[in-house]
């Protein structure tokens, strides 16, 4: 039985996520997974390309990441994720620690915006290049797994949403599909940040 990091049972939303992941991994071909990751990466990079250097580090919500920090996080996570996939595809269990959900470097606070965008594209392409060599056959039950962190939004009794954090063990196809979901989640995040910046500008508010 999987428990979250607080020792609580998984919420229905988390159970559904795991069921979806297992089902999709068993249904989809390697080429299908790779092309969905490619499409998600392109969607994200298209949204990021629309962000101006002046907006990249404006922080519309105090205490939350700005867009440059989000982009740095995705790049760092994609590179680590690619290395973990490489281990799995070569028949090895990746070494710990797992890729934690808030992984960042310091570059989001100072690196030129064009450089951060280039690194995002390079990190995405590295994962796609690796998946070109992935086998078509499904992983065998005895094939290695990787320990990974899951974060699922769940509804609380008062109607608000809160993240549930838990660890799971997955094989390479499930892990690859998680990378696609990660890209799509942050595509949506960047869109919301851009909308917040636009609304603040329209209202004449000053954002640092």
Summarize the structure.
With 208 residues, this protein is mostly helical. It has a domain at 30-139 and 172-200: Four Helix Bundle (Hemerythrin (Met), subunit A).
How would you describe what is shown here?
The protein is built from six helices and two strands. The protein is globular, with a radius of gyration of 18 Å. It has a domain at 30-139 and 172-200: dinb family like domain (Four Helix Bundle (Hemerythrin (Met), subunit A), Up-down Bundle). With 208 residues, it is mainly alpha-helical.
Per the principal axes of the C-alpha atoms, what is the gross shape?
A: globular
Report strand order across the widest sheet: 1-2
Q: What is the CA-based Rg, rounded?
A: 18 Å
The CATH class assignment of the domain at 30-139 and 172-200 is: Mainly Alpha
Strand content: 5-15%
Report the structural category: mainly alpha
Mean pLDDT: 93
Ordered list of secondary-structure elements with their pairings:
Layout: H1 12-27, H2 30-49, H3 53-56, H4 67-89, H5 113-131, E1 146-155, E2 161-170, H6 172-202
Antiparallel strand pairs: 1-2
